[in-house]
Amino acid sequence: MSFIENWLNKKTPYSLKNLTKILQESHAKSIKENDHIQKKTFSPSVIGYGHGQCPRYWILAFRGADYEYNHDSQSIDNMRVGSDSHSRIQENFINGDLDVECEKEIIYDDPPIRGFVDLIINNFDGFNIAVEIKTTRMESFAFRKAKMKAMEYHELQILLYLHALGLENGLILYENKNDHEKVLIPVQMNRLNREKIDFVLNWMREVYTVYENDEIIKNPYRKNSKVCSGCPIKNWCFEKSPEGTVIKKPLDYKGLIDNNG
């Protein structure tokens, strides 16, 4: 539970426990409800981590699955703070002496990919630069700043955008949630990153071909896997879907992205 359980040691003339329960429930109602969803495209923001690396997840998502969201009040507020930070930082770019586009839709056909890049800076020193905004905790921010190294799935996300847009240069802007300090980490579509993107795109194409053939991939994980614990279609996958016969390994790209080569 995200709220402090202060009713255990603090007496009040009313029920703090019941009040906390109501607040928790009101947070839950404010987030997207469970729904049956059929995905049409891969998402650059999801493909690089957790269930997004699972080939069976994408097969079931393309076929249509029951999505269950189990966000507690703290995670909901974190998402809202992140969204608010995106808007605030985008406004800072707009107010500067820059030619920028915000939330530009990215569509790629083979394999089918759709997403939205946070910012594109047009014609800065003769370059167009894609920018992704990420908020993070102090400890993670300090590490990113010291190493000038983005998280691998953040790099993968912006590299997919660069590929789809035909651009060479990107930036990942990290903001410290605690004090709003920021750092810009450059990402370039160099030779090694092109090879990486080709590898990831081929993996997605192979997965999508399985879907087009009306086949199902056998689950590469056990039900108690850490990857499955955060998957929104876990119950649909294990309880309501065929076992599958096609064997396909999860997307494994870590350590292969190098934006300094």
What does this structure look like?
- The chain is of the alpha+beta class and 261 residues long.
- The protein has a single domain, classed as Lambda Exonuclease, Chain A, CATH 3.90.320.10.
- Helices cover 39% and strands 20% of the residues.
- The protein is built from 8 helices and 7 strands; from the N terminus they run αβαβαβββααββααα.
- It has helices at residues 16-30, 55-63, 73-95, 138-147, 152-165, 191-212, 226-229, 234-239; strands at residues 35-37, 65-67, 99-108, 113-124, 127-136, 169-176, 182-188.
- The strands form 2 sheets. The chain has a 5-stranded mixed sheet with strand order 3-4-5-6-7, sandwiched between helices. Strands 1-2 form a two-stranded antiparallel ribbon.
- Strand 3 and strand 4 form a beta hairpin.
- Helix 2 (55-63) crosses helix 6.
- The longest helix is centred in the N-terminal third of the chain and has 23 residues, at 73-95.
- The chain starts with 15 loop residues before the first helix and ends in a 22-residue tail after the last helix.
